[in-house]
Amino acid sequence: MPSVHEPSSLAFFLQVGISVFVTGGIGGVHRNGENTLDISSDLTELGRTPICVVSAGVKSILDIPKTLEYLETQGVCVAAYKTDDFPAFYSEKSGCKFLAAIKEANRRLDLRTGILIGIPIPKQHSVTGNVIDSAIQTALREARMLVLNKVIDIALVKNNAVLGAQIAASLAQIQDNDQQKDKGSKSEANDS
């Protein structure tokens, strides 16, 4: 997300008309979070800001199932694109199954909550869960920030940006069509 320490960025994006935001991966509930209560504040912000976030999923170093559960508690709609298994940042699958397509329905229903759409990393860049888990356990012993700095991968950001642009363009077209319909209805009413 924009920054784990600046969740207000999402509200700012919405104020300037940005309704689809693309990022590499989102923060979440840290491993052992049920004891430490270490939960990224951007999850709470996503629960109260009606913006669509496209990402490669929850960062692998975090507790993905607990993060998805927390997002559900916050009322955030979570969907996966072209898969029935929520992506795990550097792996195509996390073991958490979801599927939906809903940004415009969220807006029309005036739900006022965010949407997280996970898009799997391209197959040629995917790493299996066992490899990731082993690397994470080793890295956690070294340092959490070192892991985050080592796992930056531009391929997933590019992949996320393509989908984010498609969603934003489609949303703009839907909203433009709605405005045209509204103008037509008002014109007919004035003619009566």
TrEMBL record:
It comes from Lactuca sativa (Garden lettuce). This is Uncharacterized protein. Keywords: Glycosidase, Hydrolase, Lyase, Manganese, Metal-binding. InterPro entries: Indigdn_synthA-like, PsuG. SUPFAM superfamilies: Indigoidine synthase A-like. GO terms for molecular function: hydrolase activity, acting on glycosyl bonds; metal ion binding; pseudouridylate synthase activity. Pfam families: Indigoidine_A (PF04227). It comes from the Eukaryota.
